Amino acid sequence: MGSLGTTEPDATGRERRGAPPDVLLGHHLISWRSRGAPADPRAAVFRGELGLPTDAPIVMTGHQPVFWHAGVLAKYLAAAALARREGAATAWCVPDQDVVEPGRVRMPVRAPGDDAEAGCWRVAEHDLLRWGGDVSAVPAGARPPGLVINPVPEGFGAVASALRRFEGEETAAEQAWCAHETVLDDRLGVPISPTVYATDVSRTSIFAWLVERMAADPAGCVGAYNAAVRAEPGSGVRTLLALEHRGRYELPLWLIEPGEPRRAVYADDLGSVDPAMLAPRGLVMTGLLRLVGCDLFIHGTGGEAYDRVTERWFADWLGETLPGAGVASATLRLDLGVPEVDRADVARAVWRAHRARHTPMMLGDEAGQREKDRLVAAIRSAEPARRGALFGELHALLAASRAARADRLAAYEREAAEVSAALADAEIARDRTWPWVLHDD
User: Fold this and answer.
1) pLDDT digit string (tens) for 12-63?
2) Distance of alpha carbon 296 from alpha carbon 327, whole angstroms
3) Are 331 and 2 in contact (CB under 8 A)?
4) Bond from prior residue into 323 cis (ω within 30 degrees of 0)
């Protein structure tokens, strides 16, 4: 399924791509394996609370509970391969506090009809699951499992069967992830591993400790967070609201209640909300998982960008240095049998179609071209009073040439439309984000 990226620690301690497999994990796993238990006592407690192994190094990766593309799949294959080679354990992280559609999938389908301007392919979205009411704003971990919708689109039969099998799970996130893990195991032999849901993290003692720190020092927490965001402008992370003059600070937490949209949490809310309803936002979740939940966390390219913010924030506010992280990704495209076309090809075809309307020679009209050249020269040298009549002759000449050779002109226009349609198809074919289950093994 394509070449998966590999990583090794660079001079800053962050893993980088392109390392030989033998040095991939560096000292992170090897040194801990020799000890047989995490050096940080908080790690043993945290892992025990989450049901993770406490006697072996852990390689962890994660993604939202949706059917993701091959670039995300690469993280799971890399984690499984690295753990197997190093005698480590694997664990998966599922951010169930996120608002996603667990049953929504995208696929390319042939467009109906023969309209060249529409292209041969289009993108279709299908919902494999349905709910009794509108849950579109409810996080996957706070909504119940969905019911599988029939008929199931081609290519998703195994997915639908797995989703149906887990309709009795507690949440839609659990249903989607259990189904996904089943398909991973059935098709690729990726082993079933312990799963950590973000809402599970909120029930650990270290999360409670972190919330206490936020309550005691909201200005320091949010100030360090926002400074870290501003230091990494390409991360895609937004700053938190900080109204110093009012003492109001938005915390990197969510308030999640069953069946309800998630809500932002402010420092002055902490005394009145049910702690069991708090959940970590992305940076808190990955920060804690990297700090005490695993020994190597594997990101995709997007996670690598935002995790630099996490590292800065944990270092500046908590004085904590996070263990190693790596990056794995892959690009895999579906073979739709469409030609390679780019925007320059379209621009040239459109230019030719436009040019042909004003250039008789391009229509095979040599005499018309000579007459056009004569009229253009005459217009340039004519007195102003004479130019209007000459322009009229020129337009009449071009109109007659187009009418006499309409088939040639139509061929140029058809080429422009076909190349434009081919570009639309090529852009669909270049898409790397189709669900991995659509690819052959």
Assistant:
1) 334 333 333 333 444 444 444 444 556 789 999 999 999 999 999 999 999 9
2) 10
3) yes
4) no
pLDDT the model gives residue 116: 43
pLDDT in tens, 346-396: 899 899 989 999 999 999 989 989 998 999 999 999 888 888 898 899 999
Strand partners, 358: none
Note the pLDDT of residue 419: 85
Q: Vertex 216, ends 214 and 218: CA angle to 5°?
A: 50
Cα distances from 261 to residues 68, 130, 143, 144, 279, in angstroms, run 23, 17, 9, 13, 13
d(CA 179, CA 7): 29
H helices within 189-339, ranges in order?
198-201, 205-216, 218-231, 282-288, 301-313
C-alpha 202: how far from chain center: 25
In 3D space, the residue among 286, 288, 293, 177 whose CA is nearest the CA of residue 237 turns out to be 286
The answer to whether 239 and 229 are in contact (CB under 8 A) is: yes
**What confidence score (pLDDT) does residue 18 get?**
35
Residue recorded with tokens 């043993």: 44
Phi first, then psi: give them for residue 254, nearest 5 degrees. -120, 150
b/e for 407-430, b at 16 or more Cβ within 10 A? ebbeebbebbbbbbbbbbbbbbbe
Amino acid at 365: D
CA dihedral (377, 380, 385, 387) in degrees, to 10, reads: 50
Rg (Cα) of the chain, in Å, rounded?
30
CA angle 167, 170, 171 (to 5 degrees): 85
Report whether 62 contacts 294 (CB < 8 A). no
How far apart CA 29 and CA 23 sit, in angstroms, is: 11
Q: 240, 322 in Cβ contact below 8 A?
A: no
Q: Is 87 left (phi over 0), alpha (psi -120 to 50) or beta?
A: left
The closest of 255, 267, 288, 262 to 222, measured between CA atoms, is 267
Tokens 């042909």 belong to residue: 356
Q: How far apart are CA 26 and CA 292, in angstroms?
A: 18
* Residues 192, 198, 204, 207, Cα dihedral to 10°: 140
Residue 161 above 70 pLDDT? yes
Q: In this model, does residue 6 exceed pLDDT 50?
A: no
What does the domain layout of the chain look like in residue ranges? 343-429
Specify the length of the chain in residues.
441
Nearest Cα to Cα of residue 397 among 362, 361, 371? 371
Pairwise CA distance, residues 106 & 110, whole Å? 13
